[in-house]
Amino acid sequence: MLNIKGIRKSFGENEVLKELSFQIQKGDVTVILGPSGSGKTTLLRCIDFLEKADEGSICVGDSPEIHFNRATKKEIWSVRKRIGFVFQNYNLFNNKTALENVTEGLILARRIPKPDAEKIGKESLAKVGLGDRYDFYPNQLSGGQQQRVGIARAMAAKPDVILFDEPTSALDPELTGEVLDVMKKLAQEGITMLVVTHEMSFAQDVANRAIFMDKGVIVEDAPPAKMFSSPKEERTRQFLRRILPGDFDYSI
Amino acid sequence: MFFNVSFFLQTAYDVLSGIPITVLVVLFSLAVAFPLGLLLAIVREKKVRFFSAAASLYVSFMRGTPMIVQIYVVYNSMPMILSAFFEQAGIKADVFGINPLLYALIVFALNTTAVLCEVFRSALSTVDAGQMEAALTNGLTEVQAYRRIIIPQMMVSASANLCNASIELLKNTSLVFYMTVMDIMGIIKTKAALGYNYFEGYTLAFLVYLVLCYMVQGIFRTIENRMKRKSGRLNSSPGGAKRHA
């Protein structure tokens, strides 16, 4: 489904991703955990060509293998069409209504006729619980609502996989819940998701795989329950001890 | 009599024929500078190799020299350069018969391009880069993203400075008389010189420019309000535009 091979990325002297490879199967909900500066966000951004990785290749769905450092515009576009991206700070188009935010890409990039795009857009917004907010501009929506529009926008085009870059980090705890609920719903519908998050409850309850990253490498890769209860690596253990309250007590 | 009212009224009537010239210089300059300035601003913002440096050099060159000097340089050197060029090319042309208005249009268009480049550049930075990234991840091309997302938003924040620049431009057009173009200022100065009615003449000029600038402000206020409504910033009630309801 999603196959990343040997991805490397440096910012000047600082090597952020050190030859990292992994695969994701269809329907997988994978969380990427790790301390800040471990390269999680950079990894997601490289996958969608928001940063140009120095080495490595990507394969999404049935697309051919595409090399990060010498992808043509067309190849980049073909990858982006198969991937949805949800940003930490939503990045909604401020001059567009909620519905227009969702339909913009459908109409312009995928050339779906406007009436059809609006139908898809309304369905997507209804799915994230914003069926009554089509004509609201981003500045009229709460943070949680904005992020749900962001999710609706990412999933409207039925991408092969949706990348979530810390989708709840900019939200207060109350609003975090509504966004996680939507993500949980998507996961249950079998949508393939790769989620960078600090929400351990989400990792615990929804994900079927957890990848722990540190200093640009994958340290541990296991089902969340297994990783949280009996981490193999010392580095994972240290991290979890800080992030899970109590002695591996995961009532969060 | 201290204030020659009949001269004032007569000249006020005569000045009307100069207003189209002033308006032409302003509109032409803006029409050229708007797309070019926007392009230069984007080129500088995106740090396109070579072009970015060239744009930056151009802007400092234009901003670093007084308008009046630019006018004199173009007005005095262009005919010589052109006649030398035509002679070399073997074309017979009466270079010195070219309407000086043409030079005025060139100088003001070039100068305004530099001014608007800076206006647009500061406006571009008010739209956060995340929206461009979001547009790209949605499959939009960069051109589509600029056209549909970035430019409409930057124009809202640019409008106050655009108004400023337009008013500045309008006032600067009073310099075209130095190129013997008969604009508002040109007409007034010539008429005033005949009977030494400078006080009346300059009072008139003062009022004419004041009214024109006031009109420019009015136009921009209308545009600004419309843009703000369109971009949702003025909607006080949620869901203000019920287009899909």
What does this structure look like?
- The complex is a heterodimer of chains A (252) and B (245).
- Chain A has 252 residues and is an alpha/beta fold.
- Chain A is built from 9 helices and 10 strands.
- In chain A, the strands form 2 sheets. Chain A has a 6-stranded mixed beta sheet with strand order 6-7-8-3-9-10, sandwiched between helices.
- In chain A, strand 4 (55-60) and strand 5 form a beta hairpin.
- The longest helix of chain A is centred in the C-terminal third of the chain and has 16 residues, at 173-188.
- In chain A, 50% of the residues are buried.
- The mean pLDDT of chain A is 92.
- With 245 residues, chain B is mainly α.
- Chain B has 9 helices and no strands.
- In chain B, helix 3 (51-63) packs across helix 5.
- The termini of chain B are far apart.
- Mean pLDDT of chain B is 89; it is low at 234-245.
- Sheet-strand content of chain B, in percent, reads under 5%
Instruction: Let me know the largest β-sheet of chain A.
Output: 6 strands, mixed
Give the H and E element order of chain B: HHHHHHHHH
Order of helices and strands of chain A: EEEHEEHEHHHEHEHEEHH
* Averaged pLDDT of chain A: 92
The N- to C-terminal Cα distance of chain B equals 70 Å
Biggest chain pair contact, residues each? A-B, 38 and 30 residues
Share of helix among residues of chain A?
A: 25-40%
Low-confidence stretches of chain A: none
Query: Count of helices of chain B?
Result: 9
